[in-house]
Structure formats: C-alpha cells, structure tokens
Amino acid sequence: MSSLKAFLNQNVKVITSDGRLFLGTLEGFDQTTNVVLSNALERAFYPDEPKRDLELGAFIIRGDNVVCLGPYDEDEENNIDYSTVFADKLKSTKNAL
Amino acid sequence: MLFFSFFKTLVDKEIRVEFKNGVEITGTLKSIDQYLNLKLDNIKTDVDKYPHLIAVRSLFIRGSMIRYIHLNPVDVDTSLLQDAARREAIATGGDKFAGR
Q: Where is the Sm domain (chain A) (predicted)?
C-alpha cells in the first residue's frame, strides 16, 4: 500500500489540481487522500517577481484535489535563495490539453 | 486488479510519470496501491521550470492525477501482459472481449 503514514508529522509540500502549492505539517489523512495540514502556507511563484507565502493556519485539502504530496528536506529548503527563483503558475489538471 | 499486479512487478524500477497538468517526474517506484496511487523515491524534475518541488525527495502521487507512466521497455514483457489482459477480460467479461 502506498500509505501516507510514513509522511505523518513531517513538513510536506502538496500540489493541488488547480496548480497551487501548499506547505505544512501533515497531521492526518484518509483513504481518499483527504489531508490535514497544520501551520499551512500557500506559496505562489511569479514569472517576474519573487515568490510569496500566505499563512493559512490549519488546512484541510479534499482528496480529489491532491496531485502529489511529499516531505521536503528542511535544511535544503532553508538554503535556497528564493529571491532568484521565478516560475510560471502550474497548469490545472482539468482540461489541460 | 491486473495493472495493480503489473505495477507491483515494477517496484524498485525507475519510471517517469506525467501528470495531467503536464509536469513530468522521474523516480524509483517504491509502492503502489489499489487506486494506482504511487510512491516515488529520489525524484527528479525540471526544477528551473517548476521550482515547486525543490527539496522534495520522495513523493506520493494520486493515481487519478496521472496521465502517462513512461516505462523502460526492458522492464516490461508485453506479450505476457497482453496474455494476462486477455485472460482477465475473459474471466471478468465473458467471451465477448476476447475476439471470439
């Protein structure tokens, strides 16, 4: 089984079907991939200005909207100079063609 | 359940997954479940284009968000798979799918 159990209480990044990125601590999940994050942030990248973070607090993402979810390395993350990272918005998974 | 069993034979092989949003991720298949949710290790993506997954090493991917899975041909026995698909079609759908 590809359970999310191994990722519990770790800091994770979640990409959702509308192309947004959330960071937070994985507090819980169920078999439909509903996930609960604590200390959640939404991180937005822009093509011409540095990324921005929006603090959200506790956050539930309904399973159908989860594209992928993975724990990230805290040290590696903290060493990244995000002032030079630019990117376009991710595409939605719906009607993307 | 055929493809669930099929993907179980690909555990520890390197695969490339293409999401419905166009993003491609390469990694080692670590586990798979009945929904074809995948877990990949040592993932690689085009970080310059998509910095979203910077510092992420292992990744859970929801099966419903996958468009394609690219496999190395040497990992797949296509004639065996075709045979198994036929056998499953006969077992679940009767003779009408087996071209008889």
A: 1-75
